[in-house]
Amino acid sequence: MLSLAVILFFVGVTFLLPLFNVLLLSISDPNGGVSLHHFRALATSVSLRPVLINTAVTALQVTFFCVLIGYPAAMFFARLEGWKANLTGVAILFPFLTSSLVRTFVFIVLLGRNGVLNSVLVSLGVPGAPFTLLFNHIGVVIGMTYVLLPYMLLALIGTMRKIDHTLLDAARSLGAGPVRIFLTIYVPLSLPGVAAGAIITTILGFGYFVTPALMGGPGQRMIAQSVEQRILIMYDLPGAASISVLMLVVVLSTYAVAARYLGLSRLMRPQG
Amino acid sequence: MMQDRPAAGHRGAKLQGARSASVHLEAISKSFGATCILSGVDLEVAAGEFVTLLGPSGSGKTSTLMVAAGFMLPDHGRITVGDRDVTHVPPGRERDMGIVFQNYALFPHMTVAQNVSYPLKVRRLPRAEVSRRVDEALRLVQLDMLADRKPAKLSGGQQQRVALARALVFEPSVLLMDEPMGALDVRLKEELQWEIRRLQRELGATVIYVTHDQNEAMLLSDRIALMRDGRIEQCGSPQELYRHPKTLFAAQFLGDSNLLTGTATSDGKLEIGPGQAIELPETAAATAGARYAALLRPEVLLAEPLLPGNDPAPGACHLFGTVRDMAFVGQSIRYEIACESPAQPILVHQVARATHSQMSTGQAARVSWDTDDIHLIPLGDGND
Question: Which structural domains are found in chain A, ordered by start?
Answer without folding.
Answer: 1-35 (no CATH), 46-268 (1.10.3720.10)
